[in-house]
Design brief:
The complex is a heterodimer of chains A (317) and B (326).
Chain A: E1 6-18, E2 25-38, E3 43-47, H1 54-61, E4 69-74, E5 77-78, H2 84-93, E6 94-97, H3 111-122, H4 130-137, H5 154-165, E7 172-176, H6 184-201, E8 204-209, H7 212-218, E9 221-226, E10 229-234, H8 244-252, E11 302-304, E12 307-309
Parallel strand pairs in A: 3-8, 3-9, 6-7, 7-8
Antiparallel strand pairs in A: 1-2, 1-4, 4-5, 9-10, 10-12, 11-12
Helix pairs in contact in A: 3-5, 4-5
Chain B: E1 3-12, E2 15-25, E3 30-34, H1 41-48, E4 57-66, E5 69-70, H2 76-82, E6 87-90, H3 94-97, H4 104-116, H5 120-133, H6 139-143, H7 152-164, E7 170-174, H8 182-199, E8 202-207, H9 210-216, E9 219-224, E10 227-233, H10 234-239, H11 244-251, H12 292-296, E11 302-304, E12 307-309
Classes of the chains: A alpha/beta (317), B alpha/beta (326).
GO biological process, one term (chain A): transmembrane transport
Subcellular location (chain A): Cell inner membrane
Domain ABC transporter (chain A): 6-252
């Protein structure tokens, strides 16, 4: 791999809560020691269920949250503790599209104001015609420039969110579940748009999603997270998974084909509370392949033919 | 037929929201009611449970026959005896269906005490039995817990338990798994499917997830802008969808075997109920097969294979072996 555009190493984020007069503070680790390198032009999908730390990871990579530990390097430069003006400049190259297009746009801003916002934040003039260009690129009519978010549908709003992220012509875009609140037909439109933009503008994406089917279609690499840890990295999104959790996720996303109706054996139980992480492998209490060792030792990532897996008893290839 | 809905039309105020919707479900069957947001799925559920009146809705035509009884003009007191007892309703958000101030057990008990006339003690035994059958570990302990002490998947099981507590014949489930994680969704979907077979009840499953439909439904009714686009057996719908909208909806689901760029979506958006045309196909403006006829004449449902299709230019028939083109 040539120099990665984004390199995360040992990235960790802890949150603490509570801590009142009589109550001790409790702390949880939302992201635990994540190592990840993203090459230029990649579409890396981060997939997992709620509470696995995927959104926290996205916010850490964007420097919207401060990491508790670990480093973030962007284009070779250590940006872990960048602040002030330097951080604002970083955002010209590193942008984000948020999950909910209803809350990520200011209801009192017109579409034009929304798209101009990144320039205003840096106190720079907006190049003439930029707003119209961006509307063209995201497939919205130019007449929308003077509309307000409440006049638009969810899919249209998300296009505005994408236009805003592209305002400075970034190299890297973090997409935090950009289609989770949209209908499937609109989701497919947005994914097609993101694919076109990726090709035309030579972008790199970090795509956060809970939908493994979508990630396998859209992404060139897959990172699977469970309770804050990366359990598997798949360099080939179409390969058979090695980690039992990845396989369970795959079986749980039903294939839209009645003939492929499988008598799946769903995973028992639910994700444990992140405040009381089990000792050893976080997936051990639900894992069908669990061994004694899994309950006491934390598995370290080991290389597989398709990536790496953190499991003592991975599924054979 | 356990429930047969014929040409049901419904308005709120002056806005007509459902237009001659027909479908049926029998015992031991799962009917999937699918469509995008705004297609009228949830409104249909409210109509079937008689709750639509509470939001100002009015049935303007058609019939709802449940086990031989006509429901469309049933007065509220009679509906109240039916609802919860013979027709159970599972809502999308389990949190809003549960009372935060009562224990799980009290809430499930209430159903069987009210509808089956069980004593306090017998009702609790009944509740624990149902919770156990829904694979809730340590059901007796869970029955003493409050909703906030349970996870989302667990709460949804409790809501299903409430639906089963009075031995309902028909369950109407409105997006029962949408708020849940995929591994938990798989558990709930399997539980529902098992219930229908084991207890020989009917299930109307409202969902936008074609994967779930393919997994457990026997029949499917595709709604678009308040009308039925296509209804028929699940196999034919996925194999050879006849209505261009059904085909497009199936084509919107990303599959790993798809070539890059194959996922395109459906251009445009669902029309607003204020702009529904009467004498046209409401999908025409988004449809690649539409011509002048589609913009001026309403397509009426007619047989295509085993399905009923409301389209002037259905696809996938022998005469027109065309590929999906959206």
């Amino acid at each position: 791999m040539s120099e990665p555009i984004l390199a995360l190493s040992g990235l960790t984020r802890r949150f603490s809560t509570g801590g009142g007069f009589l109550r001790p503070a409790r702390s949880m680790t939302a992201v635990r020691g994540v190592d990840l390198q993203v090459a230029r032009g990649d579409i890396v999908g981060v997939v997992g269920e709620s509470g696995c730390g995927k959104s926290t990871l996205a916010r850490l990579a964007m420097r919207l949250l401060e990491p508790s530990d670990g480093t973030i390097r962007f284009e070779g430069q250590d940006v872990t503790h960048l602040g002030g003006r330097a951080l604002k400049s970083l955002r010209k190259k590193l942008q984000m599209v948020f999950q909910d297009p209803y809350s990520s746009l200011d209801p009192r801003y017109t579409v034009r104001d929304c798209i101009k916002e990144p320039f205003r934040a840096l106190g720079e003039p907006v190049p003439p015609g930029r707003v119209e260009d961006l509307l063209d690129q995201v497939g919205l009519p130019r007449s929308f420039a003077e509309s307000y978010p409440h006049q638009m549908s969810g899919g249209q709003r998300q296009r505005v969110g994408i236009a805003r992220a592209l305002a400075y012509a970034p190299d890297f875009v973090v997409l935090d579940e950009p289609t989770a609140s949209l209908d499937v037909s609109i989701q497919a439109q947005i994914i097609a748009l993101l694919q076109d933009l990726h090709r035309q503008r030579d972008l790199t994406y970090l795509f956060i999603s809970h939908d493994l089917g979508l990630v396998r279609y859209f992404c060139s690499r897959i990172v699977v997270m469970y309770l804050g840890s990366v359990v598997e990295v798949m360099e080939d999104p179409h390969a058979a998974p090695r980690h039992p959790y990845t396989r369970a996720l795959m079986e749980s996303s039903f294939v839209p084909d009645p003939e492929a109706r499988a008598t799946i054996v769903p995973l028992e139980g639910e994700i444990p509370s992140p405040f009381a992480l089990p000792l050893g492998c976080p997936f051990a209490p639900r894992c069908p392949r669990v061994q004694d060792r899994c309950r006491s030792e934390l598995p370290q990532p080991t290389a597989t033919t398709i990536g790496r897996v953190s499991c003592f008893n991975p599924i054979e290839a | 037929m356990l429930m047969e809905v014929k040409e049901l039309s419904l308005s709120i105020g002056k806005v007509a929201l459902l237009d001659r919707v027909s479908f049926s479900v029998d015992r031991g069957q799962v009917l999937g009611l699918v469509g995008e947001s705004g297609s009228g799925k949830s409104l249909t559920a409210l109509a079937l449970t008689g709750l639509v009146r509470r939001i100002g809705g009015r049935i303007t035509g058609g019939s709802i026959a449940f086990d031989g009884q006509e429901l469309s003009d049933l007065p509220e007191p009679a509906y109240r005896k039916l609802r919860g007892k013979r027709i159970a309703f599972i809502t999308q958000n389990p949190m809003s269906a549960l009372d935060a101030l009562k224990t799980i057990g009290d809430q499930v008990d209430q159903v069987s005490r009210l509808h089956l006339g069980l004593s306090r003690k017998a009702a609790r035994a009944h509740t624990v039995d149902i919770l156990t059958r829904l694979r809730i570990p340590e059901a007796a302990t869970v029955a003493r817990a409050y909703p906030h002490q349970l996870s989302g998947g667990m709460k949804q099981r409790v809501v299903i338990a409430m639906a089963l507590a009075a031995d309902a014949d028909l369950i109407i489930a409105d997006e029962p798994t949408t708020a849940l994680d995929v591994t938990v969704q798989a558990q709930i979907v399997m539980i529902l499917s098992e219930l229908v077979r084991k207890r020989n009840i009917g299930l109307i499953l409202i969902t936008h997830d074609m994967g779930v439909v393919a997994q457990i439904c026997d029949k499917v009714c595709v709604l678009y802008a308040g009308r039925v686009a296509e209804s028929g057996p699940v196999g034919q719908l996925f194999d050879t969808p006849r209505h261009p909208y059904s085909a497009a909806l199936i084509g919107c689901i990303p599959r790993e075997c798809m070539a890059p760029g194959a996922l395109k979506g459906i251009p445009g958006t669902v029309p607003s109920a204020l702009n529904y045309g009467a004498e046209c196909c409401r999908f025409a403006s988004r449809c690649a097969r539409a011509d002048a006829l589609c913009h001026t004449t309403r397509p009426l449902p007619h047989s295509q294979g085993a399905a009923l299709v409301a389209c002037h230019h259905p696809q996938g028939t022998a005469a027109q072996p065309e590929a999906l083109d959206v």
